[in-house]
Amino acid sequence: MSKKTKIVTSTGMEVRQKPLKLRIWNNRGHYLMFLPVFIFVLIVNYWPMLGIRYAFMEYKAGPAGPSWTGLTHFQRMFEASAFWDAFRNTLILSIVKLFLTTFASVVVSIFLNEMGNLFAKKTLQTIIYLPHFMSWAVVASIFTLILSPSSTGMLNGLLREWGILGANDSNIHFLATSSMWRPIFYLINIWKETGWGTIIFLATLAGISPELYEAADIDGATRFQKMRYVTLPALSNTIITVLILNLAKVLNLFESVFVLYNPAVYNVSDVIGTYIYRQTFSVARPDYGYSTAVGLFRSLVGCVLVLICNRASKKVRGRGIV
């Protein structure tokens, strides 16, 4: 006779639980329905993870098969100055971009919330949202045309018309100048992502009780004082939450950099994602083992960041992100 374990329900009642085999048999229909999904997840999400073994192998394009090398690729990675430059650039670009776009989203949200004309508010919101739905390839094409050093470049043309560039001065190659690339990158990201970021903050602003503003009016507060002492404190928890949730993704930078950078600005623009891409696809004989090792290192650091942000989220919001 099979043994039945005792469990206590939420009401405090003690009941006997059926054996696991019997429960599986009784619910066999549900398990059969779940089986295709389970197999799909295993094949699509987990089977490719077996490829991390190449991080410990010498595996280059060619007839020769992979051979075990241990931690050689990781040693090479930690000794490569180009890798550390890419790692540093990834952190700088991601974190600065995160803070700037969050700040811009908060400012735009507050001003949109203060607008009294509903039609103008909705029209402005639509215009601000539109860049988010453009692909990075389209955005890069637009700004490459605007910033082009050729005679068709709009910004160089304006600088000449305004007299900032003389007749004998050469056009400025904005995207190929190290000192200018990062500010341009930040401005493009603000232009593209600010509208989308305002959605969450406008939702928070819509939930602020009108009684708080009425009380501020009774106390004689100006519009600026109401923004400072009512609106911003109400947004503070949302701002912190957005920052925490996005800090976990700081290493996932690739497409926005890939479409804008070039060899002249690798020292300030090369990130881990583009570094891996070049090691794999931009060399005559790709070194799959080395690029896998770099990708594995990025994933491990990203996992640590997720755990840190999850702990911070539990302290701030009372619940984690995973």
Automatic annotation (TrEMBL):
The keyword Transmembrane helix applies. SUPFAM superfamilies: MetI-like. It is found in: Cell membrane. It comes from the Bacteria. It is a multi-pass membrane protein. InterPro entries: MetI-like, MetI-like_sf, UgpAE/MalFG_permease. Belongs to the binding-protein-dependent transport system permease family. PANTHER family: BLL4140 PROTEIN. This is Putative multiple-sugar transport system permease YteP. It comes from Acetatifactor muris. The lineage of its organism: Bacteria, Bacillati, Bacillota, Clostridia, Lachnospirales. The gene is yteP_31.
